[in-house]
């Protein structure tokens, strides 16, 4: 046993070995464990954190592809999100009856202003949890962010957009 192995053992750390150096039966056992873990993960029921409402101009073209990638990155199923027009009158009957939490994301300053009733520009509305200004929706959190077309033309805003998504996800987890 080498000196390094002795020190690692005294600290309660097992010695690391290369997977390539493992004998073939051990590799087969490891491969079986990995495939079993993957199968168990796939069969487990996925629990939804809540529902996402997206407000703004419906994306088209490259913006739609970007939006679909956002949905994929968030891991949302079609039942967990919907696209809404900020000009539509809010209907409290649209709220889920099962008590699932909702977070709203407004794409663009105009959508955020219309939904929240605020007059500030988008830079002041971002990074703040707003509330939807409608009867029956006062408790719904609203996060203002950039329009998708702006993200396509100004890629440096994508990092700020990601911060907005993380804020929305955090709000949804804490409702």
Structural account:
The chain is an alpha/beta fold and 175 residues long. It contains seven helices and five strands, in the order ααβαββααββαα. The chain has helices at 3-10, 24-43, 62-74, 109-116, 122-125, 148-153, 157-173; strands spanning 51-55, 81-84, 102-107, 129-131, 141-145. The chain has a five-stranded mixed beta sheet with strand order 2-1-3-5-4, with helices on both faces.
Tell me briefly what this model is.
This protein is α/β, with parallel strands linked by helices and 175 residues long. The protein has helices at residues 3-10, 24-43, 62-74, 109-116, 122-125, 148-153, 157-173, and strands at residues 51-55, 81-84, 102-107, 129-131, 141-145.
Which features would summarize this protein structure in a list?
175 residues, 7 helices, alpha/beta, 5-stranded mixed beta sheet
User: What best-fitting shape do the alpha-carbon axes yield?
Assistant: elongated
Q: Uncertain regions: pLDDT < 50 for 5+ in a row?
A: 39-45
Any idea what the radius of gyration is?
23 Å
What summary fits the major beta sheet? 5 strands, mixed
Class by alpha and beta content: alpha/beta
* Share of residues in helices: 40-55%
Total beta-strand segments? 5
Gap between N and C termini, in Å?
54 Å
- What pattern of helices and strands is seen along the backbone? HHEHEEHHEEHH
What's the structural blueprint in terms of helices and strands?
Layout: H1 3-10, H2 24-43, E1 51-55, H3 62-74, E2 81-84, E3 102-107, H4 109-116, H5 122-125, E4 129-131, E5 141-145, H6 148-153, H7 157-173
Parallel strand pairs: 1-2, 1-3, 3-5
Antiparallel strand pairs: 4-5
């Amino acid at each position: 046993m080498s000196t390094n192995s002795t020190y690692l053992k005294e600290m309660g750390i097992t010695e690391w070995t290369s997977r390539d150096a493992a004998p073939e039966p051990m590799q087969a056992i490891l491969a079986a464990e990995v495939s079993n873990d993957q199968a168990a993960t796939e069969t487990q029921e996925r629990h939804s954190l809540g529902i996402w409402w997206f407000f703004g101009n419906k994306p088209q073209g490259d913006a739609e592809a970007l939006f679909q990638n956002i949905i994929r990155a968030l891991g949302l199923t079609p039942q967990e999100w919907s696209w809404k027009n900020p000009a539509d009158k809010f209907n409290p009957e649209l709220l889920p009856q099962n008590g699932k939490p909702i977070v709203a994301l407004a794409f663009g300053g105009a959508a955020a202003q219309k939904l929240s009733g605020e007059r500030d520009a988008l830079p002041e509305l971002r990074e703040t949890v707003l509330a939807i200004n409608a009867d029956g929706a006062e408790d719904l959190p609203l996060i203002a962010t950039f329009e998708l077309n702006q993200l396509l033309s100004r890629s440096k805003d994508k990092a700020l957009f990601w911060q907005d998504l993380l804020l929305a996800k955090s709000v949804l987890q804490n409702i």
